[in-house]
Here is the input.
Amino acid sequence: MFKLFISESSLEDFILNEQDKNVAQQDNWYKILQKQKNIYVLFDKNIDYSNLSVEEAQINPLFLLLQSGKEFIDSTSYLKDIENHSKNVLDNPCGAFLLDIDKTKADDIQKKYGVICQSTNSLNGSFWKSDIYNAHISISPNDKSHSWEEFLKGINSIPSNSLLIIDRYLFSYENDYKTTLEDGINNLFSILNSLLPDSFSKSEDYHVMLIFDGKELIEIKNSKFLFGDNSVHNIDECFAKLAKLISSKKKDLKRDYNILFELVSLTSDNFGYSDTHNRRILTNYCIIRADHLLKAFKNNLGTCEQNIDCDTLFSTGIDKNTKSDAPEKAHSSLLTALRSVFDYAKGDAAPNYKYALNKNGEKSIKDLVNRLFL
Here is the structure.
């Protein structure tokens, strides 16, 4: 879930600097700040906001912020610890860390751990609304004007440490669209090649999770692709074979850091199946939506009529008087729903959920490690 971290002093200075500007000139960070119910604060001013005089309260921007319904969550020890143990930012993988450190160190944390990290000396939230990261296309059957590589170009420069792909039919044979399991794998790796960051920590795993309907794997055409024969294979065999196949193709991504794959099958027999209805791709700070298929392309041509949209969490919905919700709302809602599914699945129902960790297709969903859900 998105969280904004900042020190008390920098929060006060930032508000004082931004609040009297023309709305069009205000930094997006200021607008995002106004939309947060909770702000995660390093307290460094030793002020009791409940004991301010009337005169002090009227001019104190943090008191006024609290009066508007915001809540400050004490994150003092956590943020101080990050100064010496920067990898702890991964405890909040979708956090935005606006820290009182120099720009070089902030940039290093951002690049190394895939979280948004900026120095409070050089805050700039313009990227949230950049056309590079917010794109919307319409494709049709046999359309050759788009591809995943073209559509997602540049988006991997937004930090990320985790990636979630949801499509019940990503690995199914769909006669209406003439798409196959092989097409699903080809589209998957085109997406991954475009979205995975060029660099990441050598000491931490980058997390990728795929959620799909494993029952689709047993269709005979899929079985033939996986096993090279026309014999019937059950879901366990097909699921395990797919996990090994995907794991074997990691080398094609040509990244110099470790990528950890998790495969989760949610079928109509499982609690949580309804949460997989929509085709979605989530990174820590972006959400991508497809109307019909993530198998959107085959032989460089569109496979069906659909719109595909990519938005940062705050591409819209932060301006005053807007009617739009920020995409962060849908991002947070989906992660919350899936966290509930996994909490349930890790209980007595665990044997009913197919789960693979890298090439091991016989793991228990209790072994789930994706940091988006821990």
About this structure: The chain has a mean pLDDT of 95.
